[in-house]
Amino acid sequence: MKIRHTFQLSLLTLACVGCVENSEDVAKINEAKVSAVETLADYTVPVKQGMATIVKLGEETLATTSEPMTITVPRYALATNALTVTYSADEIYKNFASAQYWQYVSFEDQRRGDYDYNDLVIHCRVVSLMYKENGIVKYRHTVSAQPVASGGAISLKLGILYKPDPTFPSLAEKILCENVRQDLFVGDVSFPINTDPTKARKQVSRVLKPLFEISTFDSQFPVVWFIDTPLDRLYAATTNFGANTTLDMISPDGLPYGISLTKKWNYPVEKCKISIAYPGFDNWMKSGREDNLLQAPNRAWLFPAMANQAGMVDLWDYDK
Q1: Using a CB cutoff of 8 Å and minimum separation of 24, what contacts does 314-317 make?
Q2: By three-state DSSP, how is residue 256 classified?
Q3: What is the phi-psi region of residue 242: left when phi exceeds 0, alpha when psi lies from -120 to 50, beta otherwise?
């Protein structure tokens, strides 16, 4: 009996070791996947004595500063040298600094979903403004969101993780909306909203609604977006402040629960898996570069939010 028990215990020990190893392997694989789909990067703004630096991406101004400053920019913009930098001696920029970045965030609301990434679709912006308090430089960060689409039937909360300060030892969290449909979609009872092309499409709001404000000593304010369902918390995949090392961002099917892009995109219609709408999605999960991901075939019927449909507004548009 003793030999038999010892043998069984050995088998159990080997099985547990195998589980740990497999768990560690899965964690490493998921970390690599999250790192690949990170769409943001750090950029150190170049400065000249007595001049203000203006950083733009296309027509959008990402930063204006006369002080050394690190900002958050789209990763593809760095890879493709798409940022433009100019300098100005205009007095209006003296003792002034600001920065902003955008995110186009979309979620699945279940751990195993249909991966159309339209259960919640929001347009987000983080604005950082420099000011001085008792001669000390600080930055006021404002997090805003614009509702775009809601294809999920589950009640959701919307929140972010952030660091109150770069030296802060742990992450803080903030629930931005206790009830997404009530708070962002003005209590609209229709279902779904802007994900079914057979139903009327409407722009819910043209406003990027401020949802959170905080002051820190850091010029950057990276956030990790998440949703709370009655059963789970699901995070949009991002490597901000190493959050992917401790947060569950990849589903059992090996896909993100949420994706955070920096370019306007056309999310798929109901029940259309993203890899069908975007054949480059699986490759993007391995290698990144959202500018490659968004090169979709011309199949308009797969995308309810397409801005170039005759007579339809761009759901992502907002009043500046």
Answers
A1: 314/264, 315/148, 315/149, 315/194, 315/201, 315/203, 315/204, 316/104, 316/123, 316/146, 316/148, 316/264, 317/203, 317/206
A2: strand
A3: left
DSSP assigned state of 258: E
pLDDT score at 216: 93
Closest CA to 291 of 317, 263, 259, 258: 263
Q: Following CA atoms 181, 184, 186, 191 in sequence, which dihedral angle do they give, to the nearest 10 degrees?
A: -40
- Residue among 136, 60, 141, 160 nearest 98 (CA): 141
Token pair 């548009």 in the structure block, residue? 317
Q: How far apart are CA 161 and CA 142, in angstroms?
A: 14
3-class secondary-structure state, position 193: strand
Strand ranges inside the chain, DSSP E: 40-45, 52-57, 60-65, 69-74, 83-88, 97-107, 120-133, 136-149, 157-162, 172-177, 209-216, 224-228, 233-235, 258-261
Q: How many CB atoms lie within 10 A of CB 95?
A: 11
Per-residue pLDDT tens digits for 219-266:
999 999 999 999 999 999 998 777 777 788 999 999 999 999 999 888
278, pLDDT greater than 50: yes
pTM, two decimal places? 0.88
At residue 8, the pLDDT reads: 44
Q: Are 270 and 116 in contact (CB under 8 A)?
A: yes
**18 φ/ψ angles, rounded to the nearest 5 degrees:** -60, -40
- Average pLDDT of the chain is 86
Amino acid present at 307: A
Cβ-based neighbour number of residue 225 at 10 Å: 26
pLDDT of residue 300: 65
